[in-house]
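S1.2 Input.
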Amino acid sequence: MTDWFLVFAGLAMLLIGGDKLVSGSIVLAEKLSISRLVVSLTVVAFGTSAPELLIAVQSAMEGVPEIALGNVIGSNIANILLVLGIPAILTGLCCTDKGSKLNFLYLICATLFFIMIAYTQPLYIWQGILLLFALSIILFMNYFSIKNNKTEIDKDTIEKKIETWRMIFFLIIGLVFLPLGAKFLVGGAVNISRFFGISEAIIGLTLIALGTSLPELATTVMAGYRKEGDVAFGNILGSNIFNLLAIVGIACLFGPLPIDPEFFQLDLWVMLAATLMLGFFVLIRLKMNRVWGIFFVLYYIVYIIFLLNK
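S1.3 Output.
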């Protein structure tokens, strides 16, 4: 019972912490006059990926790297199939911003690069440095996008929307709740997996991946209701890039990360297939309507059922 409490308490703290960190980060970015697309690709995406980062570091430090890698791969699959699928069913999503095409290509390159690096496992510091270097290149390219997309924003409107002290408070809450939630969640999940004889890899791919994808889901659903499809797609593109390059790269700095052979049999290829499917909606502007949303969600459910019955 205690372990289940730790899992749910950890998920709750990650959700609250991620939400507050994103809220504070968005306002901070708006105060700096950065466009919505760039905010969603960077600040929002990195903020909603903060739970995965803390989970990965905590898992590596506690000697259960399967959870770290399972969380990253599982989160990327859930982000595309579930996090985009659910709002597509509710409201429909449409990606129109030209900048998203380039970032989709970045995501494809990051996914292929990560799979290539995975075959050199176990992952040591040098592979982590390569992943972080690849991320730095993408961030450098987006730096020019920030300069070109800088917009004039009504500072008075922002001040009315949220005061500076409250923005700082949100950031602090996020930074405090995220590491505590990660510690509780990893500890409880490891004990539960061992009790039921479930591998840490599957726990990372399912329970923890779903839990740490909640911030992306909340952000994307709200973006769908506000008819901000570019924000929804930008959030997922940025989050998945950050998951593959930054989170695994940083986790490698805390110890070698062996990769479970099961990842090479199915999960890496499901992640790649889901990423390629995303290209239809970003590159050719195909609207993600209710039918596509149902297809994505069913795809995810079949994948999870297959995992749990292996």
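S1.4 Remarks. The two ends are 26 Å apart (CA to CA).
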